[in-house]
Amino acid sequence: MRVSMRRGLIAAVLAFGAVASLPALAADKIVFGTDWRAEAEHGGYYQAQAEGLYAAAGLEVTIRQGGPQVNHAQLLAAGRLDIYGAPNSFIPLNFVAQNIPMVAVAAIFQKDPAVLIAHAGQGNDTLPALRGKKIMISPETRVGFWGFLKSKYAYSDDQIAPYTFNLAPFLADPKTIQQGLLTSEPFQIERAGQKPVVMLLADSGYASYGSVITTSRKLADEKPDVVRKFVAASIKGWLNYLNGDHAKADALIKRDNPEMTDALLAYSRAKMKEYGLVESGDAKTMGLGAMTDARWKAFFDVMAADGLYPKDMGYARGYTTDFIPK
Length: 326
Fold this sequence. Notes:
Layout: H1 2-21, E1 28-33, H2 43-50, H3 53-56, E2 59-64, H4 72-77, E3 83-86, H5 90-97, E4 102-109, E5 114-119, E6 135-137, H6 139-142, H7 146-153, E7 160-162, H8 168-172, E8 178-181, H9 185-191, E9 196-200, E10 210-216, H10 217-222, H11 224-243, H12 247-256, H13 262-274, H14 283-286, H15 293-305
Parallel strand pairs: 1-2, 1-3, 6-7
Antiparallel strand pairs: 3-10, 4-10, 5-8, 5-9
Helix pairs in contact: 2-11, 2-12
């Protein structure tokens, strides 16, 4: 009996040795594209990279920053990216409208950072007060959140003035009103010595999500664990970026985008927290990344009423809540 026990022990040791000598499983490679050049609005993803959260989940993630000459939505559809941090809810619905098999799997921003900006002391302090007044917006915005403003506040297309992403006209004329992002243009305006009136559309019912983690149906169907790990690690990265030591993530952001400054990173992070871009709404009860059917329907209904999508479009094909940590 002692002999058989000894043989069993030897076999167990040999088996353990064989397992221990096996090479580590290769990490799943993911190419993740951001919606713009590296900035605080991507901080949670860089935090997950800097802290090794992706690596700990068995993922080898490469972050590719976007930019003015980069269309990451097209690159995702072409298979050049595995996952894309879409800037708003339009992107997944546009994929549905074009019958491209992509799907949103989590929404990091509960509030889209889109804002309208005006000058103080001009009577332009609220969105209702801007009805009938000229507003500088881009062509993309005209087929974007402008539909919400028309629906809720009866704005009209004859209010539209061209916006060239140059702040000089705004700074020169106190009557001007323009589009912007909560975390960007107000910072530049304040640096120029003016205090803008900033109106966040999300706080008035604009239902678009932001930083929407979007991937292909193929990856979601064939490697659901990979998608689930990426979402979970990203969410943890965002919690840590907003509430912990963000120095390493900021260093990676500045490495990718040398034009980024510590001052803008600090300003953007503070505004994300002040306005609850990430930690608000459904995220308070359901956790970061939360998306709901009701929210997607509310957004789709407004945009379909404005003619952006067919009213009978199967918008629910554009998202799934299966990958959001419970």
